């Protein structure tokens, strides 16, 4: 036959089905699903393995402008390599508008940063930090037409925060253009008050990062974002939900028939606020500083409830990598004077899928099909990539991960491919690991060895999100 490749003997798992069949690939796409494919040019033996859609990580920061003092630890080459090694075939990083700059100009910069670098396919979400009339009425519609059909807004951070009026204005544009809005829901003034109060009391260690932004602050901002979205009648995605408080707001919104979607991340099912204590409240706690911060074991339970009950549509890494042992990273001179200067974010694009499989599927909390939905299919559907990406079906891109459900691995810095000099999951034991990543029909990772090349990945012009259609109120 004219099939380039057959994956034989495995069990195909999609978001909806578990089927014993072979997968035939031609010209980078799935061409045939059949009981036995014996005539392809090349064959991969997948017996004993699961054959799943490659991971799509829709929340990744690469080469992102992080201010004058800080350098991000991954650009598009190391970041995408790490993603591929962790079983991913698509990433959607952010193109950040620097306040005072043209959004379109900033997006061109990110295209230049990514060009020829990524090993896997990628899209861009926009970050809108300065919604001027030109941005709202000209730049955003033009960028949506260019395939960046989602954007993130922040309710906190000096350099990014939008006030309520600005949120309403960008929500209105999203409604009109059918763009999907992602919301970072933490309150600016409340965090500032807490931060200044803690600093005045001499409480400046990394641990106090968590104290400065408790769940109630995330809950309030989530409720406010939901209310604004209801007023405008626009769907929203609340990203990186950390615990029960915000989650209950989302559940409440859903029960009211509002189109409110939610994402959570590995840190909220595995880490706690105590990790930020480090050894005796020293700077090593900075390795776990991210926003929203990790909470407690009760919050982890709540997140599992949300994952198994469908409150969360996506499980993303929020890969936001910084160096630990560096003056331009977690140990920056300013960062050592106060938690408020410690860069917020942790690396995790490579460990996302193993952690969810091990803690979720291997422990019986979610099914393998739910795993696929949470790590791939729902990302494709929500961000306008389905069914090109996110499933194994005739005509879809042959983006596939071969998964060994029994393989035991201890997560350690030495086995990872990211640019950071540490992993927050050092020593964390997992059961289940990717053994091969196939992107558009080509083997790009085999047994931890990366075969893909920078530039293999293509920019994805994404469709408008079907999830961004207003309810019509
Ligand atoms: N928000 C993110 O999405 N990532 C890292 C830090 C932050 O505040
Ligand atoms: Zn955020
Ligand atoms: Zn993020």
Automatic annotation (TrEMBL):
GO cellular component: cytosol
Listed EC numbers: 3.5.2.2
Cofactor(s) recorded in Swiss-Prot or TrEMBL: Zn(2+)
Extent of the signal sequence: none
Chain positions with N6-carboxylysine modification: 152
Keyword terms, alphabetized: Hydrolase, Metal-binding
Residue ranges of domain Amidohydrolase-related in the record: 50-443
InterPro entries hit by this protein: Amidohydro-rel, Hydantoinase/dihydroPyrase, Metal-dep_hydrolase_composite, Metal_Hydrolase, Metallo-dep_Hydrolases_sf
Post-translational modification, as annotated: Carbamylation allows a single lysine to coordinate two divalent metal cations.
GO terms for MF: dihydropyrimidinase activity; metal ion binding
Keyword Iron in annotation: no
Family the UniProt entry places it in: Belongs to the metallo-dependent hydrolases superfamily. Hydantoinase/dihydropyrimidinase family.
Matching NCBIfam families: D-hydantoinase (TIGR02033), PRK13404.1 (NF009941)
Protein name: Dihydropyrimidinase
Organism phylogeny: Bacteria, Pseudomonadati, Pseudomonadota, Alphaproteobacteria, Hyphomicrobiales
């Amino acid at each position: 036959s004219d099939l380039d490749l057959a994956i034989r003997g495995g069990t195909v798992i999609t978001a909806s089905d578990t089927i014993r069949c072979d997968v035939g690939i031609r010209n980078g796409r799935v061409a045939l699903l059949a009981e036995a494919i014996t005539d392809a040019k090349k064959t991969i033996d997948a017996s004993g393995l699961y054959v799943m859609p490659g991971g799509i990580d829709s929340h990744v920061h690469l080469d992102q402008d992080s201010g004058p003092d800080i350098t991000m630890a991954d650009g598009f080459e190391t970041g995408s390599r790490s993603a591929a090694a962790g079983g991913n075939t698509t990433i959607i990083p952010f193109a950040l508008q620097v306040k005072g700059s043209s959004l379109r100009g900033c997006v061109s910069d990110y295209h230049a940063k990514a060009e020829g670098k990524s090993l896997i396919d990628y899209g861009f979400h926009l970050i809108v930090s300065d919604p001027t009339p030109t941005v709202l009425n000209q730049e955003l519609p033009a960028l949506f037409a260019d395939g960046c059909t989602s954007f993130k807004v922040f309710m906190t951070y000096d350099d990014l925060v939008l006030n309520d009026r600005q949120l309403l204005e960008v929500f209105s544009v999203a409604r009109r253009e059918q763009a999907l809005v992602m919301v970072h829901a933490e309150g600016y003034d409340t965090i500032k008050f807490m931060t200044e109060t803690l600093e005045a009391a001499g409480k400046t260690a990394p641990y106090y990062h968590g104290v400065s932004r408790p769940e109630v602050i995330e809950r309030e901002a989530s409720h406010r974002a939901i209310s604004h979205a209801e007023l405008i009648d626009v769907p929203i995605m609340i990203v990186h939900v950390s615990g029960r408080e915000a989650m209950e707001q989302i559940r409440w919104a859903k029960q009211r028939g509002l189109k409110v979607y939610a994402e959570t991340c590995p840190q909220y099912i595995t880490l706690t606020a105590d990790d930020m204590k480090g050894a005796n409240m020293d700077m090593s706690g900075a390795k776990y500083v991210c926003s929203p911060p990790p909470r407690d074991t009760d919050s982890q339970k709540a997140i599992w409830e949300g994952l198994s009950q469908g409150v969360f549509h996506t499980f993303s890494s929020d890969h936001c990598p910084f160096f630990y042992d560096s003056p331009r990273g977690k140990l920056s001179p300013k960062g050592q004077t106060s938690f408020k200067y410690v860069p917020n974010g942790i690396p995790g694009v490579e460990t996302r899928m193993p952690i969810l499989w091990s803690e979720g599927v291997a422990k019986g909390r979610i099914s393998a099909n739910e795993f696929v939905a949470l790590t791939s299919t729902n990302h494709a559907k929500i961000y306008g990539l389905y069914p090109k990406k996110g499933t194994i079906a005739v005509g879809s891109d042959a983006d596939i991960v071969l998964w060994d459900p029994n393989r035991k691995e201890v997560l350690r810095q030495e086995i990872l491919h990211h640019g950071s000099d540490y992993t927050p999951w050092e020593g964390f034991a997992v059961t289940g690991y990717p053994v091969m990543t196939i992107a558009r029909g080509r083997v790009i990772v085999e047994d931890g060895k990366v075969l893909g090349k920078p530039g293999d990945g293509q920019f994805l012009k994404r469709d408008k999100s079907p999830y961004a259609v207003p309810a019509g109120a």
